[in-house]
Design goal:
The protein is of the alpha/beta class. Helices cover about 35% and strands about 15% of the residues. The chain is built from three helices and five strands. A five-stranded mixed sheet has the order 3-2-1-4-5. A hairpin with a 2-residue loop joins strand 2 and strand 3 (about 80). It is rod-shaped and about 120 Å long.
Length: about 140
C-alpha cells in the first residue's frame, strides 16, 4: 500500500479533509426532489369558513310603499287608505325601531298639495327617511 505525496501534509501527517463536492451534489438533488414533490403531496380540503367580526350587525329597516294616484287617493303597501287612517298608521310606524323607510310613489298628474300633506304628516310623526320612487321610462 503506497501513499502519494498529496495525501500527506508537509509535516508528514495524513490529510483529514473531506471532499465536499459529492455531498453538495447529493444535497442539491434532494432539494430539487423536495421542491418538486411538496406541492403534489399537499392534499388540502378547501372550506368556506364563516368570518367573525366584532361589529354590530345592522338591522335593515322595513320599507313601506306609499302611493298617491292622480285623484289624490292614498295606498299603503298596495292597500287603499283614507287620509285620517293614514295619520294613525304613521304614528304607529314612527314608534317602531328601527324606523321604517317610506317609499313614496306619486302619479305625475297628482297635485303637489297631496304630496305636501303626506310629507308634513310624516315629518309631524318624526319619520325622517322618505324616498321618492321614480320610473323614468314610464309615461
Amino acid at each position: 500500500m503506497s501513499f502519494q505525496s498529496s495525501d500527506f501534509d508537509d509535516d508528514g501527517d495524513v490529510m483529514s479533509e473531506i471532499n465536499m463536492t459529492p455531498l453538495v451534489d447529493v444535497m442539491l438533488v434532494l432539494l430539487i426532489i423536495f421542491i418538486i414533490t411538496v406541492p403534489v403531496i399537499n392534499h388540502a380540503v378547501k372550506l368556506d369558513l364563516p368570518k367573525a367580526s366584532s361589529q354590530k350587525e345592522e338591522v335593515k329597516p322595513e320599507k313601506i310603499s306609499l302611493s298617491i294616484n292622480a285623484d289624490g287617493g292614498l295606498s299603503w303597501n298596495g292597500e287603499s287608505v283614507a287620509l285620517d287612517a293614514l295619520d294613525a298608521r304613521l304614528g304607529a310606524t314612527a314608534a317602531l325601531q328601527p324606523q321604517p323607510e317610506l317609499h313614496l310613489r306619486v302619479d305625475k298628474h297628482a297635485e303637489y298639495d297631496h304630496v305636501a300633506q303626506l310629507l308634513s304628516a310624516a315629518s309631524r310623526h318624526g319619520l325622517g327617511k322618505v324616498a321618492f320612487v321614480t320610473e323614468p321610462g314610464k309615461n
